[in-house]
Design brief:
With 527 residues, the protein is of the alpha/beta class. Helix content is 35%, strand content 23%.
């Protein structure tokens, strides 16, 4: 992977662009989050998604009940067993999402310059003149001249399936709007977004809490995607709620930034959250189009420097119905990788798209190509400079391991960890080779029974760029004698050889704890 490293700043032989890429064990260092739904919930399709490169499965509770999602998750477990590919589970909350309710599911045609009324009376039938919504407080939140956007869930933003409305007047509990473009709304559920207006609803709703405390607890979710995060307090509140739910105190919270309010409080949110999801669908409505790229680059840079995963959404919308992305989308995926994103999140493309497996495969290929020209040297220097001196002990070890691996052209970095923190720190410096994170389980007790930790930590690295977990035998402690460390290392190297990651005479950098000391060593493999 690192041997063919090019730099876009240097002249590239143009003919080399057409040379086919060599297949690698890991499709890409950048991770892919796939949303499972109607077109991607069978064991066969999920198995193909895992083989194509999906490492996190997202369950979106904006639609579908817990039984539906449980059935999908059971299929995921079967697929994980049969493919032997680890996959983490992400629960995506509904949050304060405004929705148009279309019980009849008939298509609704709206004509430009016509009037349409938004009403909180959900017993009414949705027509081209009247749209029932799930929120009583809209009249208090908007004023004449405000912009409202309505589209099918995970809307594409295309003019034929989404509609822009301008508020004309407030009539009692109803909001009368002028239609700004002709469109046909199809399906049972449409998302409603009011541009740059605060909606007075809690970020973690009662419905969300119910889902988390039942479905989330039952399935030990690895990640909680907190929709419409607007303040650091939203994350703190969610963490406090999770802390009372047994093992979910280990669940990582990813703050989903979806509007200007979240953007304004980004720094405080980043400090509290375990990772960030840039929800570019809603953000693209709240922000002027010319500002979207600027927010993405600034937000991803801040996440990189904090060593927290940055996830970018809405990259290949057109693949919902097409086998190939547009040129702009293909470039967009590559730019997300060059900006420093850890993962690409696919929504409608895998949820209801016609080509879920092909989408994951193509996005993975684009990511892999972009990684080859990622300027690691410049990134490394920027990160070291940002961290400053004196570095913490662990930060110093992590950066030294990456520098050593690049200097000796190592095939992989192997890191022994029990909490996953050391592995994430190494990944923060974006080495050009994969980082094999050997998670050593720890024994814990609740006074009634013994159990091992480690599975959470292993799965949670599946969203971090360049980090690939392996769960070690619990009989091998993380901080141990040299004899047990050597036996775990042998298992890790055998795993590397079997998967084609390493071969004879390759160099490997190993990062581990021996007693109270952290050690970085370079080993050369024999025949």
């Amino acid at each position: 992977m690192h041997a063919t490293h090019l730099l876009l700043e240097e002249p590239i032989r143009m003919a080399s662009i057409l040379e086919p890429s060599k297949p690698t064990f890991f499709p890409a260092m950048t991770k892919i989050v796939g949303t499972l739904g109607s077109k991607s919930r069978s064991v066969e399709v999920i198995s193909s998604c895992l083989k194509a490169g999906m490492s996190v499965a997202r369950f979106d509770f904006s639609w579908g009940d817990t039984d539906y999602h449980q059935e999908t998750l059971e299929n995921l477990k079967v697929a994980v067993k049969s493919t032997k590919k680890l996959c983490a589970v992400m629960l995506d909350t509904v949050g304060p999402e405004l929705q148009v309710v279309n019980k009849s599911e008939k298509s609704i045609s709206l004509e430009v310059d016509a009037f349409v009324t938004l009403t909180p009376d959900q017993d009414q039938e949705a027509t081209s003149k009247l749209l029932p919504i799930n929120f009583r407080g809209l009249v208090k939140s908007v004023k004449p001249g405000d912009t409202i956007f309505i589209g099918q869930y995970l809307f594409t933003g295309s003019e034929t399936t989404s509609v822009w409305l301008e508020v004309a007047e407030i009539k009692g509990d109803d909001v009368v709007c002028v239609v700004k473009n002709s469109a046909t709304l199809a399906g049972s559920l449409f998302t409603l977004h009011v541009s740059q207006i605060r909606i007075e609803l809690p970020t973690l709703t009662e419905v969300d809490k119910q889902v988390i405390s039942t479905w989330g607890v039952r399935n030990n979710i690895d990640f909680l995607s907190l929709s419409y995060t607007r303040h650091a307090e939203d994350v703190r509140h969610a963490r406090e709620f999770l802390s009372k739910l047994g093992d979910l105190n280990q669940t990582q919270i990813f703050a989903k930034i979806e509007n200007v309010e979240g953007l304004n409080h980004f720094d405080e949110i980043l400090e509290e959250a375990d990772g960030i999801i840039l929800s570019r669908g809603n953000l693209g409505i709240d922000l002027p189009p010319e500002k979207v790229f600027l927010f993405q680059k600034a937000a991803v840079y801040k996440c990189n420097m904090a060593g927290k995963p940055a996830v970018v959404t809405r990259v290949v919308d057109s693949m919902t119905d097409n086998l190939r992305p547009t040129r702009a989308e293909a470039t967009d995926v590559a730019n997300a990788v060059l900006d420093g994103s850890d993962a690409i999140l696919l929504g409608a493309e895998t949820l209801r798209g016609l080509y879920p497996v092909e989408t994951i495969s193509i996005v993975g290929k684009i990511c892999a190509e972009a990684e080859k020209v990622f300027n690691q040297d410049l990134y490394f220097k920027k990160t070291v400079k940002y961290v400053g001196e004196p570095m913490t002990h662990l930060e110093s070890i992590a950066s030294s391991a990456v520098r050593a691996a690049i200097k000796v052209k190592a095939s992989i970095i192997i890191v022994f960890t029990s909490s996953g923190r050391a592995a994430r720190l190494i990944a923060k410096y974006r080495p050009t080779m994969p980082v094999l994170s050997v998670v050593i389980p720890r024994l814990k007790t609740n006074q009634l029974k013994w159990s091992f930790t480690g599975a959470f930590e292993a799965r949670q690295s599946l969203i971090v760029r360049g980090l690939f977990p392996m769960l070690a035998d619990p009989r091998h402690p993380a901080e141990s004698t040299s004899a047990t460390n050597e036996s775990v290392l042998k298992v890790a190297l055998d795993h590397g050889k079997a998967s084609g990651l390493v071969k004879s005479h390759d160099r490997v950098v190993v990062c581990q704890k021996v007693g109270d000391s952290s050690v970085v060593k370079i080993i050369e493999l024999e025949d």
